[in-house]
Amino acid sequence: MSKRTDSWHSPRLDRTVEVRRWGDIGTPVLVFPTAGGDAEEIERFHVIDACSQLLHEGRIKIYSCDSVNGRALLTGEGDSLHQSWLLRQFIEFIRYELVPLIRSDCGDDDVEINTAGSSIGAYNAVTSLCRYPDVFTAAIAMSGTYDLRRFVNGPVSEDFAWASPTQFVPQLDGEHLDLLRSRYVVIPCGEGANEDISESWRLADVLGGVNVPNRVVSWGTDWPHDWQTWREMLPLYLDELVP
User: What's the pLDDT tens digit per position in 90-119?
Assistant: First the structure.
């Protein structure tokens, strides 16, 4: 199984972003890190090992990138208006900078991509899918945090609502909504230490309110908000989604 690293200075984010890829062939899966994570986080925490069978069978290729917006919220970068701006810019970076790289690497300018992530990574996975269902087909949103307002101390701009699926999804209509209704979001969450499954149910209510297919799965009280949970979840749901 090969591994590739790319990095470039993003004009949208005004910083250098690193991207990693694991695997050679198969359905591309973009796995977002947690809030303070980087492109290698899922390897350090053995998520790549957990998905090794799917990778070696050639069913998937996994990509990951630095958590630019999550890290800004975690470290308090800039003021609340800057953070609102960065939430939107990161999602646009994914669509207009990272997606072309993934498609070039796959040798297919139209290949569709699955997303996944845990905690704030789940937020990025869902937001990317809901904003750009022409590119992304399914999201695995594990132990997600979807209302980021409590992490932003101060007034927010319209960019915050643009990048908040619980706010913008109910406003969608037309072809965008029709296409999103052909996509799918699976929302697994534990109910152990530091988990809050109410966030998952709230997201499901928003998606279901506009008839976007989704499924919340409770893993129960034995599963905490931590890597041992996500190492079990991700390969299980990828196996369901990927041919």
Answer: 999 999 999 999 999 999 999 999 999 999
List the domain range (segments joined by +) for residue 28: 3-241
Calpha distance 118→233 (Å, rounded): 10
Q: Are strands 15-22 and 3-10 parallel, antiparallel or unpaired?
A: antiparallel
pLDDT surpassing 90 at residue 1: no
User: Is pTM, for the whole model, over 0.85?
Assistant: yes
Q: What are 18-30's pLDDT values in tens digits? A: 999 999 999 999 9
As for how many domains the chain has, the answer is 1
**CA–CA gap between residue 6 and residue 18 (Å, rounded):** 6
